Amino acid sequence: MGTDIAPPGYTSEEDGEEDEQAETEGRQTQLDDFAEDTGPTVRQGKTIEERRERLEQALKDELEIEESHQFGSFTRGTMVGPLTEDSDTDVMFVLDRTEHGDWEQGENGSRNSLRAVKRALNKNYPNSEVSIDRNVVSVQFHDFTVDVAPAFRDGAGGYKIPDTYNEGRSWVQTNPRGYKQRFEAVDEARGGNLQKVARVAKKIRENRDIPVSSYHMEVMAYDYVHNHPDKQASTTKLTEGFVEELPRRISRGTRDPVNGDRLDSHMSRDHRRKAISEAKDAREDMREARSRRQDGDSEGAAEKYGEAVGEDVN
After folding, report:
1. What are all long-range contacts of 22-28, with beta carbons under 8 Å and residues at least 24 apart?
2. Is the full-model pTM beyond 0.85?
3. Can you give the CATH number for the domain in which 93 is found?
4. How many angstroms separate the CA atoms of 286 and 304, rounded?
């Protein structure tokens, strides 16, 4: 894919760290404010939890459910808002093996589990669009979508869900709790800045139509913040540094921090090329924003931050 080389005169984050810290560290920028305000509202968060409870009751009317879990970006604080009909949240329903164990072992069992979940939800939500989307059943409500994943327990803290890329013919391991624990540990150590960087990264993905998954983008942000040498770095500084590295990270690939699987193994060559191109464009805007910020031009910096993110950050 080639090597990304910084333009002449560009100072890396680490090389300019001392001068920048003396000049601007500790100042709240528009990017900090934007990062804080990108999540769903408290009311929307309450609606998400209430909907999980109703879905659980609907499924329990038709299936033997051991437990349910809200998981995904909402529980890690990286969901971006405001919620729209294109937003989605994730819920896992753990199936009872005694009653439904045939799905775990039988041919096309995972596909059959998805079909059973779909029938149950169609029955209880006749006015909503219910569809199978790879390894989940999606319920499209008027305000946002809930993705329902049937699952079986699989070892300490792990689960099996229908295989995303095998047309529902098998099961794949997942451990959302394991990743959530790691994410929260890093976020706490960095003063909550990991959540903010991840939300801005997802806004860039969404607004610039970068063809990587939301989870893939979040894990790249997680890895960057986790390994950043300055534990006191601000949201702005971390976000600028992450976007600087984004084209290279997309090019080289990303692995799941828990199971080590490649998150981009199914990305086509065209999608990877487009993702890198869009990331480079965002990087150029972010470089200009950083330069203006260091020059004390807060209005100009906000304008370029907005161009990098793809929406107004004021």
Report:
1. 23/294, 24/293, 24/294, 25/232, 25/234, 25/237, 26/234
2. no
3. 3.30.460.90
4. 7
